[in-house]
Specification:
The structure is a homodimer of 205-residue chains.
Chain A: H1 16-34, H2 41-48, H3 52-58, H4 62-87, H5 91-111, H6 117-125, H7 129-152, H8 161-176, H9 178-181, H10 191-203
């Protein structure tokens, strides 16, 4: 076993966390106006009024900044979905809300003014850590709802839970993933209701 | 009522149909090597050894050539799917085959060497006539299979047929549409089986 390191942690000013937040806020604003792909850290530094070196003290790369913005965005979608699920009564209604609200929140954050689409597209294409973590959390939430429905007797219990959850996630994915969602924009009005009805039929005991 | 026109139909040499086929074959070969988007009718004429004017005698635009190639490609996918459905025994198995074979045939035609992806992507983006017709035919085939399963007692009959068919089509679509399929390449191995199992659970009487 390794001994716990006793070397002192270098003292960091209390302002670090605030500076990071400040950079993220300015970068979100800047990227949403000029695009993520086209902007360099130099552009960003100039726009914020910081030196490039100062930004690199807090973020090791443009992608690290993008990842933080992306993670914030995905957390916002997730918290909308969790709130809608918590608010709904029975498990079937929770599942319906999950389809509906995840589509709406994804549309709003990725496509309203195409604000964050650029970053979300890079994140999805390159399968950033923030995306993987988000997908895992959505799958867990889905499993929780399924589990609850199995316990309440609303959902069948013959099919292995993993299998059910994965198949339903595949059905939801075209409306969660921004790269897929961009080609589904003409179906987002009706698809969540039609697909959740199909899924609920598949879950009937 | 209009009287039938008695004006003589202009005589067309019997070679017309053969020339069209020859242009399509050469264009398919050329596009698959150099891409559809980047190639002009002039490039194509030069490569085939025809004059540009001669090609325009048979096709009014590059898109008209692309549409014909695309239609051929979609017909090939469709006939693979129809053969697989015809070969399968019971309606549930027909549905499974439909998911599996449509995904495999789309993958092969759109992505093997990315041969026809370029044309298929334009066709899907611009919603060409050939694509609309293909989608309608696949939806009809799906309805036929569902209808057969309802008659045999394999599938439930409570949900309106239109609603069932549309929801199932939405589940299949990410594996049929080349723009969506390009982002699903890592799930094509398992997804058709997982999704058709889910769909079959949703259809149980």
């Amino acid at each position: 076993m390794k001994k716990a390191s006793t070397s002192p942690i270098p003292a960091r000013g209390p302002a670090d966390h605030e500076v990071r937040d400040q950079i993220i806020a300015a970068a979100t604003e800047h990227f949403s106006r000029y695009g993520y792909e086209k902007t360099t850290v130099s552009d960003l530094a100039k726009a914020i009024g910081f030196s490039k070196a100062y930004i690199y003290k807090f973020f090791e790369s443009k992608q690290a900044i993008g990842e933080m913005i992306c993670a914030n965005c995905l957390h916002e979608i997730e918290s909308d979905v969790r709130a809608a699920v918590a608010e709904a009564g029975l498990p079937p209604e929770k599942l319906r809300r999950m389809f509906k609200v995840s589509t709406e929140a994804s549309l709003r954050l990725f496509f309203q003014d195409r604000k964050l689409y650029d970053i979300a597209a890079s994140a999805a294409t390159e399968n950033w850590q923030a995306v993987q973590a988000y997908e895992a959390r959505v799958q867990n939430l889905l499993q929780d709802v399924l589990q609850e429905g199995r316990q309440s007797g609303d959902f069948e219990r013959k099919t292995p839970l993993d299998e059910t959850a994965m198949a339903i996630y595949l059905v939801m994915r075209p409306y969660l993933n921004p790269l897929l969602l961009q080609y589904n924009l003409d179906t987002t009005e009706l698809a969540p209701a039609q697909l959740s009805s199909l899924v609920l039929r598949s879950l009937s005991p």
